[in-house]
Amino acid sequence: MKISVIIPVYNAEKYISQAVESALQFKEVYEIILIEDKSPDNALQICQELAEKYDQIKLYQHPDKGNHGAGASRNLGLEKVTGDFIAFLDADDYYLPNRFDAEKELFKNPDVDGVYGANGVQYYSEKAREQFYPIYKDKLDTVYKKTNPEDVYLGLINLRGTFGLIHLDALTIRKSALSKMSKMFETSLRLHQDSEFVIRLAYYLQLYTGINDKALALRGLHEDNRITKVDSGKINPATTRVLLWRELNNWAKNEETIPEDVKIHINRMLRSFEIAIAPTFKKWGLIAKYLITDYPSIRSGLYNINFRSALI
């Protein structure tokens, strides 16, 4: 295997060396693509030093040397890779020694487009642990049971009950399979662009379950994480999910091969989050409208709004 690891780098001077060295431990890692995204700290200099030290590292910035976000940085990385397989790693995360154990076997089957596993948690400070342990504890980000590739995207859009999720750190893709995708990461999303990408990926590609009961990588939690600002309540999570589901809804409307009932479900997921962020005086009217117009679907269990949380 020749694996290209894409690492977007922003404000990660404390962590990027650890991330890089965790990827270098594997003989299968053919190259590491660092995309430095105009960090306000000293990350660029550290990336330059790493590129000088290790032949496998290739360092890039955006053509205008500006800040474009993780999605655009990953897209640039995808343009630069030369390996046969693609893996991702956030600059403040790191791989564990078992990261590619399942991949080495599963990718012997040419029908396997991608393999996903489990991601764990690493608290970088006691303050981070105190702040975020009630949310994340020591649980795994994972798909909870082995799933047929045809059902993965249905699980990710909440049509298979309690399903779990696929974290980019634990996802490996056959490069040639990406030709099935007309678009890579959605650059308009500053948060959840990875979730949006993985859902579309699971629709077009055959993704197989690898090691889903043990961590393959650790997600670093610290006070400067962008997503933890959402999870800690500094940003209304429903607001960011409206943008995610709006993007998915636009995709579904324009994809003729998606079944109609799935399109309806995606649209209703969007509407449920729109209710959650609507001003309180509008919510009762919206909920009453949806109860009247969507009552058959609500009875069937296809559309499941948490009305209590929507009113908070």
How would you describe the overall organization of this protein?
- There is one protein chain.
- With 312 residues, this protein is α/β, with parallel strands linked by helices.
- It has 2 domains: 229 residues, Spore Coat Polysaccharide Biosynthesis Protein SpsA, Chain A; 74 residues, no CATH class.
- It has 13 helices and 10 strands.
- The strands form 2 sheets. The chain has a 7-stranded mixed beta sheet with strand order 3-2-1-4-8-6-9, with helices on both faces. Strands 5-10-7 form a 3-stranded mixed beta sheet.
- Strand 1, helix 1 and strand 2 form a beta-alpha-beta unit.
- Helix 9 runs antiparallel to helix 10.
- The longest helix is centred in the C-terminal third of the chain and has 18 residues.
- The C terminus is likely disordered.
Keywords:
alpha/beta, hexosyltransferase activity, Glycosyltransferase involved in cell wall bisynthesis, 312 residues, globular, Nucleotide-diphossugar_trans, 43% helix, Spore Coat Polysaccharide Biosynthesis Protein SpsA, Chain A, disordered C terminus
Count the helices. How many? 13
Which architecture name of the largest domain does CATH use? Alpha-Beta Complex
* Main sheet: strand order: 3-2-1-4-8-6-9
Mean pLDDT across the residues is 87
Instruction: Kindly provide the name of the CATH class of the largest domain.
Output: Alpha Beta
What is the ordering of alpha helices and beta strands? EHEHEHEEHEEHHEHEEHHHHHH
Helix- and strand-based class?
alpha/beta
CATH superfamily of the largest domain: Spore Coat Polysaccharide Biosynthesis Protein SpsA, Chain A
- Total of domains: 2
Catalogue the unreliable spans: 228-233, 295-312
Helix content: 40-55%
Tell me the CATH topology of the largest domain.
Spore Coat Polysaccharide Biosynthesis Protein SpsA, Chain A
Computed over alpha carbons, the radius of gyration is 20 Å
Quote the distance from N terminus to C terminus: 50 Å
Main sheet characteristics: 7 strands, mixed
Broad shape? globular
Number of strands: 10
Strand residue percentage: 15-25%
Pfam families: Glycos_transf_2 (PF00535)
InterPro entries: Glyco_trans_2-like, Nucleotide-diphossugar_trans
Domain Glycosyltransferase 2-like: 4-134
GO molecular function, one term: hexosyltransferase activity
